[in-house]
Amino acid sequence: MAFELPSLPFSTNALAASGMCQETLELHHGKHHQAYVTALNGFVEKNPDLQGKSLDEIVLFANGKPDLAPVFNNAGQHWNHILFWKNLSPKGGAIPGKLEAKLIEDFGSVAAFKDAFKLAATSQFGSGWAWLVQGADGKLKTAKSPNGGNPLASGEGKVLLGLDVWEHAYYLDFRNRRPDYTQNYLDKLANYEYAEAHLG
Ligand code: MN3
User: Fold this and answer.
1) In angstroms, what is the span from residue 168 Cα to ligand 1's centroid?
2) Residue 135 confidence class, pLDDT cut points 50, 70, 90
3) Looking at the predicted structure, is the pLDDT value of residue 128 above 80?
4) CA of 52 to the centre of ligand 1 (A)
5) Ligand 1 centroid to residue 61 C-alpha, Å
6) Are residues 182 and 108 both part of a single domain?
7) What pLDDT score was predicted for residue 1?
8) What is the mean pLDDT of the chain?
9) Residue 56 sits in a domain of what CATH number?
10) Average pLDDT estimate for 102-121
11) Once rounded to an integer, what is the mean pLDDT over residues 163-175?
12) What separation in Å is there between the alpha carbon of 181 and the centre of ligand 1?
């Protein structure tokens, strides 16, 4: 079965008042994410080793294999964007109590968590992703990945939040200002309900 572009869990203008305009979502979801899905399906069609595997299995299978780098990039980007859409909410920014307590326990304060996440996002040189993950030890931590990488491949833990820091994610709304895009995400767009629901 071919991989498919998932529907957005909100309308394309639902985040406009929170700093992500309709044109950004139409291009990012309808063009960029669709292109990763189309490319991935093309690779699967031509490579019997990939057929019958789940998306997670393809990411892990292609990880670290130089000849499968294009497969990894597109499978990783499909995986990352599926999560990214779930991580955005028109009612984002409000941190529910159980997650707030865990952030304070592991980072010292909510502000310290946001600082650490911003550092991950802004120190990722070039295209990539910033993450909030729960490690095998149960502790929350931030992480970053270049291009289509992710914590599934790196083994850094279970993803609670993932922010796309490719320029296509923020250039229409924030031009070159990745720190402002990240701050806006943390304050107004991040779906902390999703993160709390996936705490181990
Ligand atoms: Mn993207």
Assistant:
1) 6
2) very high
3) yes
4) 26
5) 22
6) yes
7) 76
8) 98
9) 1.10.287.990
10) 98
11) 98
12) 14
Does 128 reside within a domain? yes
CA of 162 to the centre of ligand 1 (A): 11
User: Is 92 part of any domain?
Assistant: no
Question: In terms of domains, do 116 and 183 share one?
Answer: yes
Q: How far is CA 156 from the centre of its chain?
A: 14
Answer with the one of 37, 62, 86 that is the final residue of a domain. Answer: 86
Spacing, Cα 113 to ligand 1 middle (Å): 23
Cβ(81)–Cβ(164) below 8 Å: yes
What is the span of the domain harbouring residue 193?
97-197
Ligand 1 centroid vs 55 CA: distance in angstroms?
A: 17
* Claim to verify: residue 189 and residue 114 sit in the same structural domain: yes
Given a cut of 90, whether residue 81 has pLDDT beyond it is: yes
- Ligand 1 midpoint to CA 58 (Å): 19
Instruction: Write the pLDDT tens digit of every residue in 49-64.
Output: 999 999 999 999 999 9
Find the mean pLDDT for residues 164-170.
Answer: 98
| C-alpha 101 to ligand 1 mean position (Å) | 30
